[in-house]
Design a protein that fits this description.
By secondary structure, the chain is of the alpha/beta class. It has a domain of about 140 residues: Rossmann fold. The chain is built from 7 helices and 7 strands. A 7-stranded mixed beta sheet has the order 3-2-1-4-5-6-7, sandwiched between helices. β2 and β3 form a beta hairpin. The longest helix is centred in the middle third of the chain and has 21 residues. The radius of gyration is 20 Å and the shape is globular. The N and C termini lie far apart (about 75 Å). The relative contact order is 0.17.
């Protein structure tokens, strides 16, 4: 066989890369962070940035979780913006600093976040990728108008009751309406941190929970470590 014939033979050889399937069970996580003007008070926006960055860094440091957890981040004030589209943690670059301004449209933020998760579910299904129930982490300091969230509350509670969503509602600052915030997920307490500086240890706790959950096999139960921080309240 001549050298040219060998090259032609190699060109005809198909590695079948399209047949390779990602066998990692994915955990999609959407983080919605409030960037309205009130988040400038008492360092809320800076601590939110540090908290989310610490969450990503902790998951990135674990080999199993970094392959399993995929994160999307949206910011919201009077409008909703995508900061990071769904990406494996290992591929997420350093986040740009968050800037706070404007008013708060929390209903739109929740609605868009749920759209993100359901679209990701559809992507997994279309590509034969296994998944765990998605996470939605909502961080806000706003005084919520109860009438404005009725439709999205119905949507979150339906997904939660059908075991298709795990939601963590996080309130910070002294203006947040924890009673209205709890409506999004009646099955779990609101994590309330009056001091924004406590957001970092709170998100570190959530990252360790995500790491542990990502390593649990199908049909296995998972018990997270307790959150030991007296400055974070469960309401």
């Amino acid at each position: 066989m001549t050298r040219i014939e060998k090259i032609e033979e190699l060109e005809d050889f198909d590695l079948g890369m399209n047949d390779f399937v990602d066998t990692t069970t994915k955990l999609p996580v959407v983080i919605a962070v409030d960037v309205s003007d009130s988040m400038n008070w008492h360092g809320g926006i800076d601590n939110a940035y540090l908290a989310i960055s610490s969450f990503i860094d902790a998951i990135r440091s674990d080999a199993t979780a970094s392959a399993s957890v995929e994160i999307a981040i949206i910011s919201f004030n009077h409008e909703v913006k995508s900061i990071i589209s769904f990406s494996p943690v290992k591929d997420i670059p350093k986040l740009d600093k968050l800037k706070a301004s404007g008013t708060t449209n929390i209903a739109k933020a929740v609605d868009d976040a749920l759209d993100y998760i359901e679209e990701r579910y559809n992507y997994y299904q279309a590509n034969g990728i296994r998944k765990k129930s998605g996470w939605f982490i909502l961080l806000t300091d706003c005084d919520i108008d109860g009438n404005s969230i009725d439709s999205v509350v119905q949507r979150t509670t339906t997904l939660i009751n059908n075991k298709k969503l795990t939601m963590f509602s996080i309130g910070t600052g002294n203006e947040v309406n924890t009673e209205q915030l709890k409506r999004f997920n009646p099955t779990k307490p609101v994590l309330f941190s009056p001091d924004p500086e406590e957001l970092v240890p709170l998100f570190e706790f959530l990252s360790q929970t995500a790491i542990g959950y990502s390593q649990v096999g199908e049909g296995e139960s998972f018990q997270s470590e307790p959150l030991e921080n007296r400055r974070i309240e469960f309401v």
